[in-house]
Amino acid sequence: MYNRMDILSDKDFDLLHENTLRVFEQVGVAFHSEKALDIFKRHDIKVENGVVYLGAKDVEKALATTPSSYKIHARNPQHDVVMGGDNLVIAPGYGAPFVVKKGVQHRAVLEDYRNFCKLVQTSNHIDYNGMLMGDPSDIPADRGHLHMMLANLVNCDKPFIGSSVSERAALDSIEMAGIAFGGKENIQDKPVTMGIISSLSPLAYSSEMAEALIVYAEYGQVNMVALLSQGGSTAPVTLPGLLVTQNAEILAGIVLTQLVNPGSPVIYGSTSTVTDMKTGSLAIGAPEQWLIQNATQQMGQRYGLPTRGSGGITDAHCLDMQAGIESALSLGTTVMSGANFLLHGCGILGAYIAMSFEKFLADEEICGMLRRNLKGLGVTEERIDFATIKEVGPGGEYLTHPATFKHCRTEFYLPEIMRRNDYSTWSVKGKKEIFDIAEKKVEERLEQWREPEMDGDIRARLEKYVEQAF
Amino acid sequence: MYNRMDILSDKDFDLLHENTLRVFEQVGVAFHSEKALDIFKRHDIKVENGVVYLGAKDVEKALATTPSSYKIHARNPQHDVVMGGDNLVIAPGYGAPFVVKKGVQHRAVLEDYRNFCKLVQTSNHIDYNGMLMGDPSDIPADRGHLHMMLANLVNCDKPFIGSSVSERAALDSIEMAGIAFGGKENIQDKPVTMGIISSLSPLAYSSEMAEALIVYAEYGQVNMVALLSQGGSTAPVTLPGLLVTQNAEILAGIVLTQLVNPGSPVIYGSTSTVTDMKTGSLAIGAPEQWLIQNATQQMGQRYGLPTRGSGGITDAHCLDMQAGIESALSLGTTVMSGANFLLHGCGILGAYIAMSFEKFLADEEICGMLRRNLKGLGVTEERIDFATIKEVGPGGEYLTHPATFKHCRTEFYLPEIMRRNDYSTWSVKGKKEIFDIAEKKVEERLEQWREPEMDGDIRARLEKYVEQAF
């Protein structure tokens, strides 16, 4: 039967892969970093005028050493995660300059960032702490990452994303992660953190990104090589064309990681989408984004790599039905296409311009519901329980049957903020929308947060590092 | 690679099917209709105390004559649809007693019903007109179907659902459909309409439903045999158990259709879900509902039958983010699982208690986006367009490239009510939510509606039929 999710045949993949190799050979990928160019040159890869021309052999060689799955260690080992296989790891929104509430934006500040860390720490559905969960405007730009790393380490003991805004920021992240794990030598080739590496579409890498990538690779930390290219502006207008340029950009970055440190862990991914042709702006709620997600996850899987998708993302600026539709179908498509890692899992509004605390919780609920469904049906004789069906018979009822009591707490997902009241109960309770429920829940979650344990000496050294960094 | 949508293995299916046969043999399905029981008896099927005990052979025999696909004819042949295969036919919400707007409910009236017909007629995404799009409270209960059938035929020339509230109502629907098509003989075994047949879970059929089913089958019209059973109250609490009782109920109905008229068209489906264990109420936004949808579509496909799923359904009472999440993931899961027919595609709020005009349009948008994605990627050399990638090169831009102009109107879905403005444009324009945009659009759609052509004589005869019916 035609499987509507199976949108990439082997033939499709081969065509996309072959054309990627043609791009490598005839068009190339520009790296605006001498350091990166030198690495390619040292490995006898053709470089001309700052453009790198990979060969098929270079790609094969890289894919032979990239691990298909690996563990990422948390300060608290109970929160270790496995990247790859059939695992699903969810991280929050990343990179928004604003925080928005009921349609009113304010520039994000460090206190917002700390609060997002606390939400991650208290979350049943998010397993990976972020970076840039709001970009703190009350910290000088070149020091932001230090405070965010400190906040990550102090407020949350789940694994976390490091900074990749520059080589310096990446090194600071590694240093601070090193302090937290009792010494930098303890984390060499033992993944504890991740750099989010975006190419500069089309077909280029900025010096900052390339050099951050090199740092993470050197230390054997995870390079999540992804991008946001826009069909019709920074990528071809046709989706197959976009998948080719996207693939070239990602693979070029991955090749570089393996040249720096063969076997260093990577993730293959994207949050590419299309341009809204009416306004010329980014359209992250577009249905094409879900299609691209599906294809991207399948391509990464074919390369034997852990894959990254996007999460609860939307062009809406408030928690209305549009926000729900777009976030749910983005998250849902990505998860059902096999994604291993979701960035922007929770909290994004307005095409990445803002984080929202209330949306964070609503997106978490989507994640919880999808995770429940990933457990599947569990079809066994025992769970079919024919004996009960026979006992209840035609016209009977199951509500008061012992079997129902036995299973009712475990069989069904128990929502945290979705409401299921009938109309009159809902009316009597004030006709609340999910925003209202979420708003209250955010407060409760921040109340219930407790600072995770940290060695006093480590804490002091981290704070000193932040203070003294340039 | 583990495919997260493939939740029903062959082994799972066999186990569910075998247990369905055990239910038929040892538990049976009750039919509260002498007429139906007689039909089973006449075919040497065991009937005892109003309970029917089917054999494996009865099921096989029925599945040998059910068509796997067929056309349903519209008054306007341009709106004919094909049921089955890889087709997708979407119909509106069905059965709600109220209409709701901005959280305020009023009992549905005939004028609401007519307006829903007009929305269907002017829709780019809905191909099938309903019945009970709101249940008109200003018409005596036993005459409602007559007025709805008249409204269907006059306001819309797409195919439509008939009434199945009783044998009488089904016969009236057939009579009126017959008038519209120039005579009842013209529609004998030529599908023009459909009865929505729900079993009485668990494991029973009311006399009304069974006898409506018999009427539709006799005339070779479509029987959409589905149900709404509730895990933990009218079905087992465990999902595999629910899938068994559900399967038994659906197949029993389908067997009856084939005994009445072998080869008469059917659809296999469900909108079953779970009970909210906190409140005891129906939870149609539950994630288990999407899982059940997926399994149901797959089971119907394995039986070689066209399948029915649910559409944009939610427990929310207004167009907030919960409504978007639940509607999108229900619609999305059902469509991606291969459903051929969606009932409740558009308009439902509050666990089926109300229809909403604004939600109708928002759900339509989801349908439009999903349909766009069903077209797939179209991976060809031509659409990869390597020449343009080479021309633009690293660091170039596609926005002003001729290829972009060429494709920009056809490649991307153009949303009807989703907004993609940046924050300041959105603010300046009044911070509208999708409800506001939809509200305005509803008015526009009703304005632009034009009554489809109908022979004056046919119109007169239909009106006379309504007037004179008992």
From TrEMBL, chains A, B:
> Which one of the record's GO molecular function terms can you name?
methyltransferase activity
Keyword annotations: Methyltransferase, Transferase
| UniProt EC number | 2.1.1.-
InterPro entries per record: MttB-like_sf (IPR038601), MTTB_MeTrfase (IPR010426)
- GO terms under biological process: methanogenesis; methylation
Family per UniProt?
Belongs to the trimethylamine methyltransferase family.
This protein's name: Methyltransferase
